[in-house]
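Bench log, entry 3. Co-assembly request; chain sequences pasted below exactly as received.
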Amino acid sequence: MLRTQVAIIGAGPSGLLLSQLLHLHGIDSILVERHSREYVAARIRAGVLEQGTVDLLLEANLGERMLKERLVHDGFSLAFSGRTERVDLKGLTQKAVSVYGQTEVTKDLIEARVAAGAKICFTASEVAIEGIDDHHPTVRFTQEGRTQEITCDFVAGCDGYHGICRQSVPKDAIRTFERLYPFGWLGILADVPPVAHELIYSNHARGFALCSMRSSTRSRYYVQCGLDEKLEAWTDSRFWDELRSRLPDEIADAVVTGPSIEKSIAPLRSFVVEPLKFGQLFLVGDAAHIVPPTGAKGLNLAAADVRVLYRAIVEYYRTGSTESLNLYSEKSLRRTWKAVRFSWWFTSISHKFSDDPFANRLQLAELDYLSGSTAALTSLAENYVGLPFE
Ligand code: FAD
Ligand code: DHB
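Structure output for the full assembly:
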């Protein structure tokens, strides 16, 4: 029987960051992860970090490589109707965002946790939680054929959308809000220089496209695709042709193509559960909410949850007060719903939902209005760089 203060289910960015911050405040945790270390470290997902997320990573003593290797972006572009309009994030909000891959964040976190001697149980199966309404819940799992048991004070459910923590809660104690979108994103990673120094979000009659990057030599591109598309049907050359067809001519001509090193399809959804606290169990990050990736908010929201929860746990062990723990749900959900709204809105003006010409003209009018209005651009920019913390 193992004993810890906080059992953390899931060693994605949420779980690792929570564990690291708790450690720096003298609080012990054990991480239980379904996949191997190599699998977790290789997963390619987010790319854009808000300044608040960068600050939290610095607070977690993780900044060194990130500060050296990140690309600071003061703006991005919207492409529509054959033209390109820049959104001057820095000019509108005095803030910027950082391009630094989730893969790198995860690598830094795993290294820091391992170096500090953290207990991370990789390749754990049959993970189950018991007694979340008791003072000392139990986490049970199987590793290398052996059943293990952890008793703890708190369980942090950092196990993503498909995890077991949310599913361990009685159905009548939890409310779910969900919207599915009739499309997905097909993404590729390639070792070619990005087409531009900043990101380009493109609304096109053939569907949405996004030009992003991981470094000055590694590009990340996405195109909107049908939900029933087969990855095998997308050869590299088909992908590059489709991407270029959705960009204004001068940008399309500048795209440097090359072999993909990763290719995947992700469905888009908005999903939130309420509340986020059930007795001693707290849901964090993608286990609690999913947003469509358009606004680059998922990882940033996960970090914001960690920020609220780790401070509440530190307060509890310092003072014995459960006040902040009891406010976790309300605080995190207020921020979450604003990001859900922004991600839904940005998706709705940039993607092709149907062949309805009226809907398309409304989107183009909104983009045209946006690009000519400092008020509207400021609203977009302040959400994109991340709303201030309370
Ligand atoms: P996850 O990363 O899902 O981690 C959960 C962990 O729990 C995993 O390691 C999993 O293996 C483990 N696990 C699952 N089930 C169990 C179990 N039963 N037992 C033990 N462990 C378990 N966000 C941004 O902020 N900016 C972006 O630019 C951005 N772009 C994105 C692009 C794409 C294509 C996608 C798909 C997502 C993007 N996101 C972005 C979202 C971001 O990747 C997620 O929000 C982020 O990974 C959430 O972190 P998490 O730790 O909460 O969950
Ligand atoms: C990336 C993903 C996003 O969802 C986004 O809005 C910007 C960048 C990326 O993976 O690079």
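DSSP finds twelve helices and 21 strands in the chain. The first strand starts at residue 2 and ends at 3.
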